[in-house]
């Protein structure tokens, strides 16, 4: 799905701003005094707990005027996301429905509106997570009849319109999709889909706008002479302008390759070592609302620490983030929202009776269908980003349980069909060991999340070091693939200090990370380290959480804890060596 861009043949109107907002409503005029900001999660905007704890649909509404010059064009509404379910109405007419909270969807509303006139736009957004949504969740009813949402992931279930909403014009015959695959010799294989058969031309422009290749036909290969590669830390972007009579669309791209060979992760044929973070889209007040100021600042802080990469834990991030990574040469592991496919974690944390994770009664075919759809939408959205070097299909699934292989094998196949060019991984949970894991051989890279020294061997870094080394060596030996740590971290209260190994202190977070780095440097097949987490973030209530998860290297308002300085020293030092 193409990102909306203004071109000579396409116009865009941003519908961001203040919308009328209500917990009860319908497509008719909303009877409400509340207004909500878009983009923003609605949860933290209001003081009324009924909004924050609401389970079900909420209603957003505004008037929209169609520009008068748009007569004869297709008129399209585009929502960059509605978390987790969206229903869109023009006047009283339902024009789009979508499930999956972190990927875009659109509706052609040409038949329902008129150029120059206003219409009432209503978006109902549902936040319910169930056994057949990605991520999954459970709705319970409390003794007093309140519906409560529980879920198996460790971040707050922010909901609403957290990304931009657009009104777009498009010519009647238009370009629908573009897929680009590049080679180191400057070849660009392209496929252009159009709304109906029509001759296609393509032109490739370099960063200065100079034409460097041309081609004809809906699919083909063009070649850029003396190509400048897209490299981590040294990005270079071209644009492929697809043209048909009456429409054109410029698709930015970078020329680079990705490959796993033996125990190496290669970008442009050169070994790449990941340094960086698992992150969240999470800020005060906005929740998961996209914000360009935080975008710029977070990338500045990543650069300051010497991070060359991050994982979009635990869902696809806003497209602005992906574009920014392309332009700034940051490498991305792109993750679906499949977090929490693990009932053992729930029983471990909350004492619930263990049930099999993968079964018709728990997560079965319908869950897998939703998961497959999440993968399709992620690849469709992000396939042309040079920054994206790997797909991560799930975070901490019960890959050690019966049924895991049957569940994941078709999903890995699907991903490879959709994109044969990128490696595929998942992040393995603590309980999934190199001995009992049933799926790692299906994937290209072993990513493990481990908390030795935190949840296990708490405060005992010597024991933790021995456990960690044995664990990582086990994966490396059994699978012979590149191994990286996709999570390791310790909750830390800024300002808390100790001369001993005392959990929650700033010194402990630093010593914990340093212990890991000693181990990583001893393991040959090791290709990267992503600290959990870039910044503190909000979670559901829990006795193991203090106003959220505090494993951030930065606080929620992006101030460095002591560990940030230590990481900076290591990663800036590694940049020259690995
Ligand atoms: C994990 C999860 C992550 C949590 C983290 C923690 O394994 O993948 O979502 O936030 O542990 O801090 O417990």
Keywords:
8-stranded parallel barrel; TIM Barrel; Jelly Rolls; 6-stranded antiparallel β-sheet; Immunoglobulin-like; 9 helices; 30 strands; 578 residues; GH; binds (2S,3S,4S,5R)-3,4,5-trihydroxy-6-oxo-oxane-2-carboxylic acid; Glyco_hydro_2_N; hydrolase; alpha/beta; Glyco_hydro_2
Could you characterize the architecture of this molecule?
- The radius of gyration is 24 Å and the shape is globular.
- The protein has an eight-stranded parallel barrel with strand order 23-24-25-26-27-28-29-30, surrounded by five helices.
- It has helices at residues 49-52, 292-305, 319-328, 343-350, 365-382, 404-418, 461-479, 506-520, 562-575; strands at 12-14, 17-22, 35-38, 57-65, 74-79, 85-90, 93-99, 105-108, 118-126, 137-141, 147-151, 165-170, 175-182, 187-194, 201-205, 211-216, 219-223, 238-244, 247-253, 258-261, 264-267, 270-271, 274-278, 309-311, 331-335, 388-395, 424-428, 446-449, 483-487, 526-532.
- It has three domains: 12-170, Jelly Rolls (Sandwich); 175-256, Sandwich (Immunoglobulin-like); 272-575, Glycosidases (TIM Barrel, Alpha-Beta Barrel), CATH 3.20.20.80.
- 20% of the residues lie in helices and 29% in strands.
- The structure holds (2S,3S,4S,5R)-3,4,5-trihydroxy-6-oxo-oxane-2-carboxylic acid.
């Amino acid at each position: 799905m193409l990102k909306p861009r203004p071109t000579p043949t396409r116009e865009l109107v941003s519908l961001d701003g203040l919308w009328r907002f209500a917990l009860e409503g319908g497509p008719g005029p909303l009877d409400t005094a509340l207004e909500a900001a878009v983009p923003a999660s609605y949860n933290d905007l209001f003081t009324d707990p009924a909004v924050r704890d609401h389970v079900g649909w909420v209603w957003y509404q505004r008037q929209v005027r169609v520009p008068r010059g748009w007569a004869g064009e297709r008129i399209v509404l585009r929502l960059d996301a509605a978390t987790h379910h969206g229903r869109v109405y023009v006047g009283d007419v339902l024009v789009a429905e979508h499930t999956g909270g972190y990927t875009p969807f659109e509706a052609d509303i040409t038949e329902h509106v008129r150029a120059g006139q206003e219409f009432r736009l209503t978006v109902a957004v549902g936040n319910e997570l169930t056994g057949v949504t990605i991520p999954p969740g459970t709705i319970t009813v409390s003794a007093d009849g309140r519906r409560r949402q529980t879920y198996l992931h460790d971040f707050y279930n922010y909901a609403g319109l957290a990304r931009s909403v657009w009104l777009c014009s498009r010519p009647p015959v238009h370009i629908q999709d573009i897929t680009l695959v590049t080679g180191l010799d400057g070849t660009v294989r392209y496929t252009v889909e159009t709304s109906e058969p029509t001759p296609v031309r393509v032109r490739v422009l370099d960063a200065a706008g100079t034409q460097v290749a041309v081609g004809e036909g809906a699919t083909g290969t063009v070649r850029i002479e003396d190509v400048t590669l897209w490299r981590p830390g040294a990005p270079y972007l071209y644009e492929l302008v697809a043209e048909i009579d009456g429409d054109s669309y410029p698709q930015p791209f970078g020329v680079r390759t990705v490959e796993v060979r033996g125990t190496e992760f290669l970008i442009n044929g050169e070994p790449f070592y990941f340094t960086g973070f698992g992150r969240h889209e999470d800020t005060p007040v906005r929740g998961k609302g996209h914000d360009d100021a935080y975008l710029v600042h977070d990338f500045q802080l990543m650069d300051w620490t010497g991070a060359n990469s991050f994982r979009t834990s635990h869902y696809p991030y806003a497209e602005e983030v992906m574009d920014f990574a392309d332009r700034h040469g940051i490498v991305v592991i792109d993750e679906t929202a499949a977090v929490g496919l693990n009932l053992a974690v729930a029983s471990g944390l909350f004492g619930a009776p263990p049930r099999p994770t993968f079964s018709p009664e728990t997560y079965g075919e319908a869950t897998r269908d939703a998961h497959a759809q999440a993968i399709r939408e992620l690849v469709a959205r992000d396939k042309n980003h040079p920054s994206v070097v790997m797909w991560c299909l799930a975070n901490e699934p019960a890959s050690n349980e019966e049924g895991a292989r049957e569940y994941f094998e078709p999903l890995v196949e699907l991903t490879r069909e959709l994109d044969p060019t990128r490696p595929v991984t998942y992040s393995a949970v603590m309980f999934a060991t190199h001995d009992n894991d049933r799926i790692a051989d299906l994937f290209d890279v072993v990513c493990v999340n481990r908390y030795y020294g935190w949840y296990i061997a708490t405060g005992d870094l010597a024991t933790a070091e021995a456990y960690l080394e044995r664990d990582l060596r086990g994966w490396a030996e059994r699978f012979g693939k590149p191994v990286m740590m996709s999570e390791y971290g310790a909750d830390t209260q800024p300002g808390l200090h100790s001369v001993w190994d005392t959990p929650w202190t700033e010194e402990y977070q630093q010593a914990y990370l340093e212990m890991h780095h000693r181990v990583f440097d001893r393991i040959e097949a090791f290709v990267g380290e992503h600290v959990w987490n870039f910044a503190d973030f909000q979670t559901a209530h829990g006795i193991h959480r203090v106003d959220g998860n505090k494993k951030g290297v930065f606080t929620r308002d992006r101030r460095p804890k002591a560990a940030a300085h230590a990481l900076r020293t290591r990663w800036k030092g590694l940049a020259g060596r690995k």
